[in-house]
Amino acid sequence: MRRLENRVALVTAAGSGMGKASAERFASEGAHVIVSDLDEAAAIKVADHIAESGGSAVAAGCDVGDLDQVRSLIDRIGKDHGILHVLYNHAGIPGPAGMDVELSAWTKAIDINQRSAFYATSYALPLLREAAGHASIIFTASVSGMVGSPFSPLYSMTKGGVVLLMRSLAVRLGPEGIRSNAILPAMIETPMLSEFFGREPGADIEDLKANYMASVPLGRVAGPEEIASVAAFLASDDASWVTGVALPVDGGFLAK
Q1: Mean pLDDT value of segment 184-189
Q2: Are 44 and 60 in contact (CB under 8 A)?
């Protein structure tokens, strides 16, 4: 199925992990994908791989913590295409653990996890409106945005805010035919996974992973492609009646 034929999609943090898998999946379903990442070389590699596989993509280096860069990226899409069908606000960082957090680190977590998504959406709205009822905004939140994290209250706070931003946009933009949804992953095998579990000094990363996995009913770690398949559904008209949904993709973690 090519559910995104002739559509334009932007994926932030698409140089690796879930963002990369989603960019590749969108392209395989017919979208022209703007592959955005802080690491421009990684974005170029993903875009080149998509092109080699017969898809359409262009790379864009962008630090979503810098709003001037975010605005410039959206302006570039406007000049090149005049429309945006899918905005996938995927960029995020684990941030520091615990409560002894430097203000600079606290601010960075807010800037990357919340502020970037808010302003990218704000800047992109004129282009999303051009999609004439076929626009989809997707956020990557987390199961930690629905239940408290004993390890990282800051991370839970930022991701919980993303969920409420998504729901507010669903209510505000629904009358314009613009849908807004969030994906809530649990334990996904990406480069960020070890960073997430390794924030506490002296942390036994493998032990922490094993303990977490024991709380997942399906009993395994998911792959990035399992998030990408859900993102492709939410991006497409197959989800035309789906908005305001915080969708767990968590192996049953939140079901308990």
Answers
A1: 86
A2: no
